[in-house]
Amino acid sequence: MSLEVRIKKQFRDFTLDVDFQAGNETLGFLGASGCGKSLTMRCIAGIESPDEGRIVVNDKVFFDSQHHINLKPQERKTALLFQNYMLFPNLTVEQNVAAGIGKETPKDESARIVARELSRFGLSGFEKRYPAQLSGGQQQRVALARMLAAKPGILMLDEPFSALDAHLKGVLEQNLVDLFNAYEGTILYVSHDIDEAIRFCDRIAVVEAGRIQELDTPDDLVNNPKSEAALKLSGCKNAPRAEYCSDYSVWVPKWGITVETQRIVPRDVKYIGIRAFYVESADGPGENNYRVRVDRISDSRFDRSVLLGFIDRDERAQQVVMRQDDEMRYLHQHLFWRVNKLALDGGNLPEIGDELWIHLPKDKIYLVAR
Fold first, then answer.
1. Which terminus of the chain, N or C, has fewer Cβ atoms within 10 Å?
2. What is the per-residue pLDDT across 307-364, written as a single tens digit (0 to 9) for each?
């Protein structure tokens, strides 16, 4: 099984320009809304047509602008699952599952395929029901059964859980495990949730403004991000601009501090990153120790998120922005610290107005050049 995509599509204020390959794997597409993830899937499925480029699935050319090839969606044998599942409301469960099976398939063979997929997804006994008579989870299982029954050359899932609450999402994710275990081939999985992508995907493509910024394993994406987009999408709350100082230090204008690093600093470094839960409390001055003020706190069940302003800012630092002047710039000049409430006595939790010392571990500092 293989997939080759190299396409461009121009809109008035947006350009899709992606180039990637995939094999027998689940490849995730991670990015913010409107970055081009879903558009890429739609181009592969034939719902949208690129302006130029080439799409090949399992050695079958779906699209080739140079040779004027552009197969219709029904000729491509793809399966694209949206969040709303797109079941036919006037067809029964078994009719919905059979809808993707080619008309050339004998009726008895079609019935055998439908029965097999209904059994795989725990839907035996629901054959004569209509979608409106099913729960959300049952509707999803019907959609997944229909995908496998069609024997597609490629599976594509476009944020199938985006509108679900956490509990139902956890239950329905198990349906996808059954799907992925049963399917041998390329699976493309669109998401804006890093944890969801990590659970399902062998590799993850970070998409920003219509382009793939990096494509890597989940482990490398989290522990060795190579772009600002990957830093932020992997959940790194602290990702300000940085400038080269020396081979092992960077200057952070928004924070007004110099940070020592364990990794060699590239000359063209653009951003520094440190995750909020890697920030540590300190007793006083030292390497990568800074005096800060607690400007804001917010609590969840097990964590306290703390917004820290640096007190001893270097004279080269950017001018401090007041909250009333620009809320977003005010926030971005702060350091985010996530404190584990279970690990601390409640009386030792940081409070608004506290002045304290924190430490940024050198081995937890990310450096990216794009």
1. C
2. 999 998 877 756 665 555 555 666 777 999 999 888 776 568 899 999 999 999 999 9
Distances in whole angstroms, Cα of residue 361 to Cα of each of 245, 289, 365, 367: 18, 9, 7, 13
Strands 203-208 and 26-30, by their bridges, are: parallel
Buried b / exposed e along 255-266 (16+ C-beta atoms within 10 A): bbbbbebeeebe
Burial of 325 (0-12, 13-18, 19+ CB in 10 A): exposed
Q: What are phi and psi of 16, to 5 degrees?
A: -90, 125
Handedness of CA 320, 324, 329, 332 (dihedral sign): positive
Q: What is the pLDDT of residue 243?
A: 94
Q: Report DSSP state, residue 362.
A: G
Residues of the chain with pLDDT under 50: none
Task: Quote the CA–CA distance of 246 and 367 in Å, as a whole number.
Answer: 13
